[in-house]
Amino acid sequence: METYALLLGSTLSAGTVLAIAALGLLINEKAGIVNLGAEGMMLCAAIAGFAVVVHTHNPWLGFAAGMAAGALMAAFFGVLVIWLNTNQYATGLALSLFGVGFSAFVGIKYVQAKLPQGQSWEIPGLAEIPFVGPALFKHHPMVYFAVFLTFAMVWFLYRTRAGLVLRSVGESPESAHALGYPVRRIRFMAVLAGGALCGLAGSYLSTVYTPLWVEGMVAGRGWIALALTTFATWRPVRVLLGAYLFGGVTMLGFHLQSVGVDVPSQFLSMLQYIAPIVVLAIISRNPAFIRVNMPASIGKPFYPGS
């Protein structure tokens, strides 16, 4: 039982990285913007957060640095695609490639660096409950923040006027503009928020989940987070559940290795990438379902003068 409790706990931790990043990308796409630069933003945020913690010994400053790095890169992306009307997909890919190279260059001197001893977290009283305690109540606060963020986003998108305006910009920016809403400004703020959350996910990865810096350590999680938005049909709660599903697949691979299952390690490492492909292939068999849930103007530029 203890093994399964640890496996469940590891699944929640692994899924947190994907959930926070995917929720950030969800905000972008609800406003009609597709940002393929998540991988690069997360890598730059990972090294920014790691470097700040190395020098300050304060993990919360590391999170702030990661969010700032992600937001800065997202701001650059936003100016290009929103005001200069560059192609969203090409610009996002360029941002991702830039982030991979830039983080590797900046992080050279931090490869052997070590972070200060991390604090152990648990919820008093609940953490001692058999099975449930180790599985659910001995996590870093960021794990619980991901759950809170999910339901806060549900409330924002479907219960507030600001959320309604954001969704209307993603559905029909021309109509929102005709009603007097600053479409470009709203999209830019959504891009900034999405970049900050991708940055938070990257800094959590390098300072808490795997407290070290290695070149390319995001290892495709940015792309998986991007796939999660489609997998979840642009619904926050489904994003969270999907993140835990893919996190669980990753942890299952490690668990099978630890118990000596005679399966090549390369195949087990592939599981976290195979799962999104299989799920997306199944979903794609019903394009009508995707069209109903997908923001109508996603990926489309907006020209106020047209």
From TrEMBL:
Alphabetized InterPro entries for the sequence: ABC_transp_permease
Superkingdom, natural source: Bacteria
Residue ranges crossing the lipid bilayer per the database entry: 6-26, 33-54, 60-84, 91-111, 141-158, 188-206, 212-232, 239-257, 263-283
Pfam families the UniProt entry points to: BPD_transp_2
Record flagged with keyword Membrane: yes
Sorted UniProt keywords: Cell membrane, Membrane, Transmembrane, Transmembrane helix
Membrane topology: Multi-pass membrane protein
Entry's localization field: Cell membrane
This protein's name: ABC transporter permease
Organism name: Variovorax dokdonensis
